[in-house]
Amino acid sequence: MSKGSHQGDEQRFRPQPGKPQQRGQTFVNQVLRQANKAGTGKPRKAGHQPGARLGRGHVAARFSAQQLPPNARRVTIKTRLVNLSKAGKRSTLSHLRYIERDGVSRDGDPGKAYGPLTDQADIGDFEERGSEDRHQFRFIVSPEDAEQLDDLRTYTRHLMSRMEADLGTRLDWVAVDHWNTDNPHTHIVLRGKDDTGKDLVIARDYIAQGMRNRAAELATEWLGPRTALEIQHSLQREVQQERWTSLDRTLLRERQAGVVPLKTLATHPRRQLLIGRLQHLQRLGLAHEDRPGQWVIREDTEATLRTMGERGDIVRTMQRAVGSMQRDLAVFEPGGSNPNVVGRVVTKGLADELHDRGYLVVDGLDGKAHYLALPARAKLADYPIGAVVETRAMSEPRAVDHSIASLAAEGLYRSDHHLALARSQAAKGQDSKALVERHVRRLEALRQAGIVERLTDGAWRVPADLPEQGRQHDARRLGDVAIELRTPLPVEQQVRAVGATWLDQQLIGGRRELADKGFGTEVREALRQRGDFLVEQGLAERQGQRLVLARNLLATLRGRELTATVREISSQTGMQYRPAIDGERVRGVYRRSLQLASGRFALLDDGVGFSLVPWKPVIEQKLGQSVSAVIQGNNVSWQLGRQRGPSIG
């Protein structure tokens, strides 16, 4: 096959998404449940998609493919175009902090952002320069032979210089090198403006092909072309791999009317490797020999193999996390046989560095190590190592949605009617306005999702099946499962803590089934020690093998911890403590948060005294600003700012 012909085939082969159709009873079907929609639709030539040549670089993309030799070094590039108006103002800084995190440099230190001319890029200044940008490009550049390249920083600068020549403009970018994985790679964040201040529009062909070709061209210049022996060894490894490979791409190119005839491979230089790959796909249930010399490959093969590759990466991540600990490994699946996982965070990281999607590896009470994929908006910083977490299925509608539906007469909810009803039914001291505001806040969130319609101020049109639609909305936004932080404190710190701890909740609620190894064993011993501590404090007594706890144990412990904390704050500041009374509104400037054994609290300063109110993540953006809250039982409703507006329930 000629060089030009081979490259033409590469360009014409472009998988298009399609839903997997065929599902047998093989092992592979366990993987299919998590496979993304994929398949092989009608191929298109590069540059023939609508708008493929719109923007800078489409000419360079075409010529770069012609210049690249077939034995060039291989480079993988992942690209994400970020709409900054939707991603949020702090998206850039948040992403850069993610990729600068600890342990990603070659020496295990935090990563350092650099730019075209500096080794110490100011990410705050970069964010400020791009604060008005419409969009932004984020790349992960991963040369196959990155370790041989050695100096990724210089390599990246040369690559971006060639991109500037291809795109005809100077580029404003910062990058961070990562050496903490099997494949060293570089994260690049590129502003969406050209050197004249106009929106930078890059042709789709250049993003899909041109940039990768330039990266491969540069790696080949540095290291020389791949030798025939290197190519042969690489292909031999692909035969038995459980991931999507170049051999699979070749097989699909050779497919005719859904069948791969072996006679078409008779003169193919990789004939034996391709036949070996077909036989391995057969063992995986992804291909079969329909009749002698006629092989049929399942339509969902690419999706399945890509997912199997991801699962293999997950297993290796978990094996590194547990080390020499004897644990069964389990990948948590929403709707699986074990919907409730409770355990200690032993490691965490980014499963998808391009989209900042995190994961946790949890040592469970059941003696297993569990891999938990975090929801899209979850932040790794919220889950400290050693913290106790629990999965919760989003299977039940919210109580507030049931309440709204029951209050909506003929599909119409009115906040003034609800307020009048709440006041007539409220007990003394209860804040009816806070209750209504919590409903209004939820309605506004559902309105933005297109589920309810606001007719006028204080009036909403509500569908009859609001609870179910609200549940589906939460599942789409948060994932089918929420991963809740039960306590950031390791169990060993809870044993003698003066406060209402997670261990106390386990003692009150009855002990879960605890495994005889790992975290289960540690929790069993911690519960015994916690019981001894409560006996010392006069809050429990032992009657034989039975531990009898004092009434209102949690409230007593919480009160003791708050009393000690208040005394310390008052001695340091000279301010008077103003306790938050159940049902009454407390106001002040949010100064800081305090992590106690009983939970996290916000300190509100009213100018003379201070109050401690249960903290919620939404108020962190209001640090230094005036807020108010109402505590009712175990719930707290926050009002952000002095102006009238909805509360956060």
What's the SSE blueprint?
Layout: H1 3-12, H2 28-32, H3 58-67, E1 75-83, H4 84-87, H5 91-99, H6 123-129, E2 135-143, H7 146-149, H8 152-167, E3 173-178, E4 185-191, H9 204-223, H10 228-239, H11 246-254, E5 259-261, H12 271-283, E6 287-291, E7 294-297, H13 301-322, E8 328-331, E9 342-352, E10 357-364, E11 368-373, E12 388-393, H14 399-407, E13 412-414, H15 415-425, H16 432-448, E14 453-456, E15 459-461, H17 466-478, E16 481-487, H18 491-494, H19 502-509, H20 519-536, E17 540-543, E18 546-549, H21 553-573, E19 576-577, E20 585-596, E21 599-605, E22 609-614, E23 626-632, E24 635-640, E25 647-648
Parallel strand pairs: 8-11, 19-22
Antiparallel strand pairs: 1-2, 2-4, 3-4, 5-7, 6-7, 9-10, 9-12, 10-11, 12-16, 13-15, 14-15, 17-18, 20-21, 20-23, 21-22, 23-24, 24-25
Helix pairs in contact: 3-9, 8-9, 10-12, 11-12, 14-16, 15-16, 19-20
Query: What is the average per-residue confidence, as pLDDT, rounded to a whole number?
Result: 84
User: Unreliable segments (pLDDT under 50, ≥5 consecutive)?
Assistant: 1-47, 642-649
Work out the oligomeric state of the chains in this entry. single chain
Number of strands: 25
Report how far the terminal alpha carbons are from each other.
66 Å
Spatial extent as radius of gyration: 30 Å
CATH architecture of the largest domain: 2-Layer Sandwich
Count the helices. How many?
A: 21
CATH structural class of the largest domain? Alpha Beta
Q: Proportion of β residues?
A: 15-25%
- Share of residues in helices: 25-40%
Strands ordered across the widest β-sheet: 19-22-21-20-23-24-25
Q: What count of structural domains?
A: 6
Task: Say what the CATH topology of the largest domain is.
Answer: BirA Bifunctional Protein, domain 2
User: Any idea what the shape is?
Assistant: globular
Structural class: alpha+beta
